């Protein structure tokens, strides 16, 4: 707010000085006397012109600030994208290891491919009715396969 008040005072002061200088020059060059109307008109013209210049400078400064912010945001976005790529690469490695460990365990338990698929979906938290839709089979069939999984794995009887 203080900057705006100073800016307005500067514009008015510059306009007053320019108006005075131009009025004196006009009188000296034309030899005509200065009227109050001429001074007021010149003063208003100078205020408008000075205001337009100051406004333009403020817009240019704001654009420079926005350009700097844009550059910083692009850098941060690039850093985040790089971090995301690193995380995905690390996660993919871990996921592949986990998938291999789960598949090995399913093999040790002697699960059929269908039972292994159901077990994997259950591990992911998919509901049995949704598994039935995904596998295009009935819910009772999925329940039977899930019970077979529980028997083979020795996990215990689940309420399915």
What does this structure look like?
The chain is an all-alpha fold and 160 residues long. It is built from five helices and no strands. Helix 3 packs across helix 5. It is rod-shaped. The two termini are 69 Å apart.
Short description:
By secondary structure, the protein is an all-alpha fold.
Considering the chains and any ligands shown, give keywords for the structure.
86% helix; 5 helices; single chain; mainly alpha; 160 residues; rod-shaped; 0% strand
| Biggest sheet details | none
Average the pLDDT over all residues and give the rounded result: 85
Number of helices: 5
- Radius of gyration computed on alpha carbons: 40 Å
Class per helix and strand makeup: mainly alpha
- Strand and helix order: HHHHH
The tally of strands reads 0
Task: Give the termini separation.
Answer: 69 Å
Structural shape: rod-shaped
Q: Report helical residue fraction.
A: over 70%
Residue share in β-strands: under 5%
Query: Runs with pLDDT <50, length 5+?
Result: none
Helix-strand blueprint:
Layout: H1 2-30, H2 36-109, H3 113-123, H4 128-135, H5 139-153
């Amino acid at each position: 707010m203080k900057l705006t008040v100073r800016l307005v005072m500067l514009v008015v002061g510059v306009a007053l000085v320019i108006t005075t200088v131009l009025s004196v020059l006009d009188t000296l060059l034309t030899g005509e006397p200065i009227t109050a109307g001429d001074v007021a008109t010149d003063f208003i013209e100078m205020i408008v012109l000075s205001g337009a210049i100051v406004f333009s400078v403020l817009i240019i400064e704001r654009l420079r600030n926005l350009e700097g912010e844009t550059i910083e945001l692009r850098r941060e976005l690039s850093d985040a994208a790089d971090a995301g790529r690193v995380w995905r690469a690390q996660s993919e490695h871990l996921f592949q290891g986990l998938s291999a460990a789960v598949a090995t365990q399913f093999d040790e338990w002697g699960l059929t491919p269908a039972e292994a698929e159901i077990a994997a979906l259950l591990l992911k938290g998919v509901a049995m009715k949704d598994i039935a839709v995904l596998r295009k089979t009935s819910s009772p069939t999925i329940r039977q396969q899930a019970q077979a999984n529980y028997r083979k794995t020795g996990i215990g009887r689940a309420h399915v």
